[in-house]
Amino acid sequence: MKIPIVFLGTSQAIPTAKRNHIAMLLHYKNETMLVDCGEGAQRQFRKAKINPCKLTRLLITHFHGDHVLGLPGLFQTLALNSYNKTLQVYGPRGTLRFIDLMKRLFIPRGNLKIEVKEVSGKFLETQDFYLEAFPLKHGAPCNAYAFVEKDKRKLDKKKLQELKLPSSPLLKKLQEGKDIEHDGKKIKANSVSYVEKGKRISFILDTALCENCFKAAEKADLLIAEATYTEEDKELAEEHRHLTARQAAEIAKKSQAKKLVLTHISQRYDGREKIILDEARKVFPKTEIAEDFDKIEI
Amino acid sequence: MKIPIVFLGTSQAIPTAKRNHIAMLLHYKNETMLVDCGEGAQRQFRKAKINPCKLTRLLITHFHGDHVLGLPGLFQTLALNSYNKTLQVYGPRGTLRFIDLMKRLFIPRGNLKIEVKEVSGKFLETQDFYLEAFPLKHGAPCNAYAFVEKDKRKLDKKKLQELKLPSSPLLKKLQEGKDIEHDGKKIKANSVSYVEKGKRISFILDTALCENCFKAAEKADLLIAEATYTEEDKELAEEHRHLTARQAAEIAKKSQAKKLVLTHISQRYDGREKIILDEARKVFPKTEIAEDFDKIEI
Description:
The structure is a homodimer.
Chain A: E1 4-9, E2 23-28, E3 31-37, H1 41-47, E4 57-59, H2 65-68, H3 71-80, E5 86-91, H4 95-103, E6 113-118, E7 121-125, E8 129-135, E9 143-149, E10 152-155, H5 157-163, H6 168-175, E11 180-182, E12 185-187, H7 189-192, E13 193-196, E14 200-204, H8 211-217, E15 222-226, H9 234-239, H10 245-254, E16 260-263, H11 274-283, E17 287-289, E18 295-297
Parallel strand pairs in A: 3-4, 4-5, 5-6, 14-15, 15-16, 16-17
Antiparallel strand pairs in A: 1-2, 1-18, 2-3, 7-8, 8-9, 9-14, 10-13, 11-12
Helix pairs in contact in A: 10-11
């Protein structure tokens, strides 16, 4: 099953005519997760023709304004649209306080149920996937996130037909990887099924290069990483604790990621983003730069 | 002198692909005033190619989210761009508390000087203009605003040449409307000068119809008013304390305004705004509907 990711915004601190503030959507089965929610995100939903009421979870990397100032407006629009779930909100240390402030920021209309958790390490596990947070090094408490789909054993339908296996309790056992007996014959699970590797999608934004970047990105099918600077401005990157395009590519390479998409693009490179791409591709050729409304399926 | 007004956003609570949240700019001499600052306003500045650092004053009608959620982002961008003035912020009762909350909402970068005042009645007067606030009737404390340019006495250069009046102190007296003596002759100020009427621009948004609507709009050269509903949805308008297009037009007509521009357009009329316009024009023909980035000169 392909997992779609939509880039609702791709800019750094100051938006440009082409790039709105950062926000990324990940759809998986009946889950729609938003990673960061920069100012104007609710209008980006509208432009992308995605109903924000589909949201189930919100993963916040950190509370610098450009990553979160779309939250109050999104909350209000969800409330006005009679959002009827409880929105699950995750973030680093400080999240409870900030979300509480946001709810008091303006006179709200409607009611919205939110559950907020400050997370680190594996913080959610379902039958199909888990979510993991990795503390990073930035000017504010900041998390990288990994969405990890679990490996799934799939039955080989052709082989099952050959064996004339009808009964569902037996099929269930095979799917669980257990060997069975049928018509007096032993059937090994591995002989009629195979394991489909789950996908891993990692989000690293706003950090200086640190050990947890590599842990978050490890063997990711898709690594989405900030590339706020190029090597030319490496001193600024260090001062503001951001990655250069080259560093993002090095993370992808060393972590054996399959694909890298760069985002959080600074206005300083407006119209000349190619220098970011070229720098990264020298280290990790399978790199792209995200544009607003790009959709990637992994 | 023409006074330009730029519509940076024209939507009601929920933005559409075409309309961003409400925000309006008024330029006058070395003043740039922003009336309301909906989410995404800073990006609208960028798209309109207007430097937000030109801002001198911010007039907030009320603290419903759709009118103010662009403030934190705008504050951050001003700080990042080394805004070096003290931004004057005006609003209704409650403004001090809300602005204080906004400053604590996220981890700010840079420093920004802001002076906040809760206003009602005439609250600012300069040599050239004054600003007046009129409390309205809405679900939250809410102000209408009027920008009033003062009348100016102008000298008739042709007549001055005929009289061969060279001396500047004498000219200054005439400009002040005082009669003078020259070459033994009395010269009446009115005979060599005329009074140029100042412009009045009024902003009425988010209110039920009330007496102060008419006071704010009185003889306005330009009345900008909300038209969130049409008469068909008059019950909703009353419930949510908003104007219908017809009511906005009636305000313009009874107040003897010269021109009416409708804004704060609801998504329910997306693509069929003509019904708003038609309803208003039946009462007040000189009506237009604002689109994002429209510029009007009065």
